[in-house]
Amino acid sequence: MILLFLFVFMAGRPQAALAMHTNAEACARAEKKIEGLQAAAKLPPDQRGGPVTLTQEEIESFFALSKIPKIPEGISGIRFEIHPGKQHATAIVDFDKYAATSKRPLNPLVELIVHGKRTINVEGSAFCPADHQGQYHLDFVSLDDFTVQGGTIQFLMKWFVLGRYPKAEMDKPFVLPSNLKRVEIQEGRIVIQP
What are the DSSP calls for 13-54, one per residue? Predict the structure, then answer.
């Protein structure tokens, strides 16, 4: 659940600046921090410890190298750009591979239109409107050179995403996973209050 939260909280665009180096040490640090957050969730609030910081390098290394995140087959090259007030994410999706290994069939309209490897880019913002709550907004989503914004994103979310992930509603507060109190997005890092 923390992994889904991290992905939602960091919504990209491909560019040379995103070529952050991933490494095993950064991945191991991220895994240890996430394990600690999950363990702290079981403790009383006054015993959960101080803030935990995940750097952009740790996050990208985690998604690139860790065996822990359950990233579906066909999704690769996940990159983040983390800034206060605006986050970017990009990934390569091999829709044929994804569809072949998915436990659920893709929406027939998506299968009809989308094939092969495509670059998905997302730009948006994520924040905590109150303790134990998160919220996100997507400014744009693009598939290769095709970009959608505003009401079109809401329409696509309703018809293609919310049926599968009903708690993924945009612009609506959601409960943070693992009893997290607050998440603050800073330049190049995320600070999590357990």
Answer: ---GGG-PPP-HHHHHHHHHHHHHHHHHTTS-GGGS-S-EEE
Contact in structure between 12 and 187 (CB atoms under 8 Å)? no
Q: Which residues contact 173 (CB under 8 A, 6 or more apart)?
A: 129, 130, 133, 134, 135
pTM over 0.90: no
Signed CA dihedral, 25, 28, 33, 36: sign only: negative
CA distance 30 to 24: 10
- Predicted confidence pLDDT, tens digits, the chain (194 residues): 444 445 555 443 333 334 457 899 999 999 999 999 999 999 999 999 999 999 999 999 999 999 888 888 899 999 999 999 999 999 999 989 988 888 877 777 777 888 899 999 999 999 999 999 999 999 999 999 999 999 999 888 887 788 777 888 999 999 999 999 999 999 999 999 99
CB atoms within 10 A of CB 116: 9
